[in-house]
Every structure is written in structure tokens, then in C-alpha cells.
From TrEMBL:
GO molecular function: oxidoreductase activity
UniProt xrefs under Pfam families: DSBA
Organism expressing this protein natively: Acinetobacter rudis CIP 110305
Domain called DSBA-like thioredoxin: residue spans: 7-202
Family matches, as InterPro entries: DSBA-like_thioredoxin_dom, Thioredoxin-like_sf
The protein, known as: DSBA-like thioredoxin domain-containing protein
SUPFAM superfamilies: Thioredoxin-like
Length: 217
């Protein structure tokens, strides 16, 4: 009999820890499936807009972080920490190339629409491409033309999406994360973890969640 394990992941496109956490989850899934080939793991992605108060066209990246962290030394220290953690999971981030801190409401609106149309594999493709747009390609996620081009690369034309990215604001929030921010993982609706944990921690959480179903881990 095939068992099912649901994982809800709350994320934000401009949060590097979410990209790092996604890579850790991928590694955890590989570990888990080596011993649990009879378990169907279903990942549900939930967009969280962390900084809703940003102007719709965003703000300069460096100025945003200098104001947020106090001075350039703090910014450099934080970015070095993030780059080190990202490199450990095979992700290269060059913060010097990122020009804008975007308001991500349009990106979340696009992803939510594709979720209505796409298979989990197609959702994964778009999610990866949107992360890459910000962290690797330094594209502006506030630009509708950029977002529709990304969707087209993933197989969805603007007419097919029937989506107005400038429509009245849709709320993307962290109501289900208990105020813990992102990334935030919920395993089978029972066990929650906040933060970009190592793969073995996420894998252990899968085992624990499975055991609470009454199945042997």
C-alpha cells in the first residue's frame, strides 16, 4: 500500500534562506526515498510576501539593507554569512549584482495562478526559475514583462494565464507560520520547523511525521 506524506512549505522569492531551505529539502527527500520508496511525498508551496509595505516597483537593494542593518559593515557580514550557507548547498549568490529589493506581490500572484493550472513538476520549474531570476540572473521581479517572459519560458503564455498582475492586491501572508517567518515547514499537518535546517533534520522530521500516522518510520 502506498502511503502519503504531505509537506507544506512557506517561502518568499527574495529570501535567500528559502532558496537554501529548498535545496536542503531536496537533499532530505533524496535521503528519505532511499528507504521509503512506498511513500508518496507531496510538497505544497505557499507564497509569503515578507515586506508588503515596499513600493510596487521596489527600492534600491543596497540602500534597503543599509537602512535595515544599520551600516555597510553589518550588511557585508550578513551577506557573507548567507553566501557561505548558500555555497554549502551548491548555490552561488552575488549580492553585488542585485540592484532592486522588489515588492513581490506580482511574482506571488503569477505563481499562485500557475498553481491552479500546473502539475507539481511544472510548479517546481516555475519556482526554480523565479528564484534564479532574483538570485542568479538579477532580473526585476516587479516588472510584469519580466514575469510573463519567465512564465513563457516555463510553458505558460500571457493569454493562457488570463492574469492581470496589476489587479487589486491579493494578500500573501504568514498566517499559518505562527509568526516564525520563512522558510517554514509543516510535515503532515503535525510537525512544524522554522528555518533552513540541514537535510538530515528535515529527513528526521519526515520519519517522525510518518510515525505519527501509525506507520513504522
Amino acid at each position: 500500500m502506498t502511503r502519503k506524506l504531505h509537506i507544506d512549505v512557506f517561502f518568499e522569492f527574495i529570501c535567500p534562506w528559502c532558496l537554501i531551505g529548498k535545496r536542503q529539502l531536496q537533499a532530505a527527500l533524496q535521503q528519505f526515498k532511499r528507504t521509503h520508496t512506498d511513500v508518496d511525498v507531496i510538497v505544497h508551496w505557499h507564497g509569503v510576501q515578507l515586506i508588503r509595505q515596499l513600493p510596487i516597483d521596489g527600492v534600491p537593494f543596497q540602500a534597503f539593507y543599509q537602512e535595515r542593518l544599520g551600516n555597510s559593515e553589518n550588511v557585508e557580514r550578513r551577506q557573507a554569512q548567507v553566501k557561505h550557507a548558500a555555497q554549502a548547498v551548491g548555490v552561488e549568490i552575488d549580492f553585488s549584482k542585485i540592484k532592486r529589493m522588489p515588492n513581490t506581490v506580482k511574482a506571488h500572484r503569477l505563481f499562485a495562478r500557475v498553481q491552479e493550472l500546473a502539475t507539481p513538476e511544472q510548479q517546481e520549474q516555475l519556482l526554480e526559475r523565479l528564484f534564479a531570476a532574483y538570485f542568479q540572473r538579477c532580473e526585476d521581479l516587479t516588472e510584469s514583462t519580466v514575469l510573463f517572459q519567465i512564465a513563457a519560458e516555463c510553458g505558460y503564455s500571457q493569454p493562457q494565464l488570463a492574469l492581470d498582475l496589476n489587479a487589486a492586491e491579493q494578500v500573501f501572508h504568514s498566517a499559518n507560520t505562527g509568526g516564525h517567518g520563512v522558510p517554514y515547514f509543516i510535515f503532515d499537518g503535525r510537525l512544524a520547523l522554522a528555518g533552513a535546517h540541514p537535510a538530515h533534520v528535515l529527513c528526521d522530521s519526515m520519519f517522525e511525521a510518518l510515525a505519527t500516522q501509525g506507520w513504522p518510520a
